[in-house]
# Entry
Amino acid sequence: MRIKTLTAVIAVSLSLAFLLLAYVLLQIRLDSQLNPHQSYLLQWAINIVGAAFFVILLIGSYIRRTIVAPVVQLVEHADQVAAGNYAARTDIQARNELAALAVGFNEMSAAIERDIAERKRVEADLLEAKNALEALAHLDGLTGLPNRRRFDDQMEKEWRRTQRAQQPLAVLMMDIDYFKGYNDHYGHGGGDECLKQVAAALAHMPARPGDLVARYGGEEFVAILPATELEGALQAAERLRGQVEKLALPHERSQAAAHVTVSIGCASMTPTLECTPNQLLEAADRMLYQAKTQGRNRVCG
# Structure
């Protein structure tokens, strides 16, 4: 039975008991032939019963205000905390142990609230760090372009998507011309700087959703162009080749030009169940080899 209900039952029971007693005493006085002394005593009994009833009402009111109401507040506070409302607070004005208990409840709720807020902050920081690590795991450390792992994931995703949509998928394979000679002549530091600048030029290609330029390995780069026929792939490749040529990076050991250039092989196909992504990559690689055998610094497809 809840505290409020129990208190109400006790108050009603006492009230009825005292009213019954008062009624009995009044009946005795009305129905009996009493001498003055007996009448005097009966009147005092009635007065005492009335006073006792009034005192009990005062005591009940005091108990309700100082004990019952605070206990009810504490129970409601506990229910709210149990339901997950850790911002709940209890304000008990009484100056007794229940008020001290309420302070303890409030401090406990505040501590839980702070702990949860701190845990959420730590979880958010961990999630941010996790996302940052995942992003770094998909980036090439030198050039900042997506790495081979990122390319493989994107290739598989776009292959399935274009296969469902029955759209063409194009791949560009790119290679810096005579890069070994560049490294030998300008040193590995110069070679790294060359890779960074070429990567930055390739990254300027206008990108649509699904387009990706990545470092494939060494001096090789690769691009994915979803929903692109061979003609569109050749045009995109020519723009990329021109972007690199505009850098005008001196290359004294190149037999293709006096500056750094790239050769690009293009291939496009509409994915089917009978073919694989490797077949598209191999086709683009064959076109890259053809561009190299034809003199480099060119696009073939």
Notes: Strands lie at 169-176, 212-217, 220-226, 262-269, 299-300. Residues 148-300 form a domain with the Alpha-Beta Plaits fold (CATH 3.30.70.270).
